[in-house]
Amino acid sequence: MSSRNRRTANAEDMFPGMPDLLPKAPPKAEEGEHVARTLDEAIARSHEILTEALATHPIVGTYWLSSGGNDSAIVGHLLRDRYDAVLHVNTGTGIPATTQYVTDVAAAWGDTLHELHPKNRYEDLVLGKVIAGSGPNAGWRPIWKGFPGPAGHKVMYRQLKNEPLMRFRRETLGDQTRLPRADRKKIVYLGGMRWGESEKRFRNAEAIDPDGSIVWVSPLVHWTDAHMREYRARHRCQQDHEHAEHRLCFDGALPLNEVTEHIHMSGECLCGAYAKPGELDEIEFFYPEVAARLKALEAEADQAGVKYCRWGQKNGGPDAAAPAGRLCSSCVEIPGQDDLIDQWRDTGLITPEQHAAFTRPAA
């Protein structure tokens, strides 16, 4: 789900003067999907997307992935009567108030909530205590060590978010490997990806994206920022009064995670891979206990001799891979954060050794 709204290009930034219409069809869109729609037409299309997914695949469960972010809230609010339960991945790196918000909203709506946790702790990943279980490094080399920079985002996504969701899938569906493919069941994960979020999402997002026994459905994929604003204005309490917690002031109200008002992101994952300058100071201002936890880990990493022992710093690391992950829709590089040579290294075009040679100061 979108968690870093401050860092994500909106539709008006991407396509100046055209906030309600994408100027061309996204590469993975169905024909005509980029046409201008009223909000009610966009809502109707969202329901059509989910209906199509349920009719096309043998679905046995539909789950709203609630990150605590603003886009995620709209997905759940729009489809309240069409999912079976709520999934929240508690990465162990986030702001506890966000998990509490997800818990409170699920309770208020009478939803079943599954709070998922990663097998490996973030702290153990940073300290290099998680040893590879497969591949050439199995049994002797950590899968990661140090605080992640952009190159470590893929590792953190896989360990902290993807692994709990894959485990939930296995527990829900059981072992289907011996079943004929025609008899294998699937589950739907409802996410909040939109073409208007970023250039990367414009290129890659799909309304319905089957992946093995999971069907990833993005019912808001065609929504523009203007649609999002209008929906919030229509359904979130706008009265000038003392709001109920999370602005659940009336039946059917669109909830608001107060964390997003403070730091302009959901804060459900603070791995730091794409932290902006000064972000830890901002977190400390509003959530000092969270910053204290990260700083204590910095001190522990420093004491253990970990090279990259500062949260939010760039880290080439042993796996210089490009960022990935459906649920980190707005984890993107800050313009100007990395120079071109850094990007070459982080995308695997050059090795870390070649990068060091290019950037070594002249004698």
Describe this structure in words.
The chain is an alpha/beta fold and about 375 residues long. It is built from 13 helices and 6 strands. Strands 3-2-1-4-6-5 form a 6-stranded mixed β-sheet, with helices on both faces. Helix 10 (about 280-285) crosses helix 11 and helix 12 (about 340-345) runs antiparallel to helix 13. The chain is globular, with a radius of gyration of 21 Å. The N and C termini lie far apart (about 45 Å).
Number of helices, where a helix is a run of at least 4 consecutive DSSP H or I residues:
13
Which strand order does the major sheet show?
3-2-1-4-6-5
Overall pLDDT score: 85
Strand count, sense and closure of the main sheet? 6 strands, mixed
Distance between the termini: 47 Å
Radius of gyration: 21 Å
Contiguous low-pLDDT stretches (5 residues minimum) are 1-19, 317-323, 333-341
Q: What order do the SSEs take from the amino end to the carboxyl end, as H and E?
A: HHEHEHEHHEHEEHHHHHH
Share of β-strand residues: 5-15%
Q: Percent of residues in helical segments?
A: 25-40%
- Net shape: globular
User: What structural category do the secondary elements indicate?
Assistant: alpha/beta
Number of strands: 6
Describe the structure using short key phrases.
363 residues; alpha/beta
What is the compact description of this entry?
With 363 residues, this protein is an alpha/beta fold. It has helices spanning 11-14, 39-56, 70-78, 96-109, 122-126, 153-173, 199-204, 225-235, 258-263, 279-286, 288-303, 340-346, 352-359, and strands at 59-65, 85-89, 113-116, 186-190, 208-211, 214-217. A 6-stranded mixed beta sheet has the order 3-2-1-4-6-5, with helices on both faces.
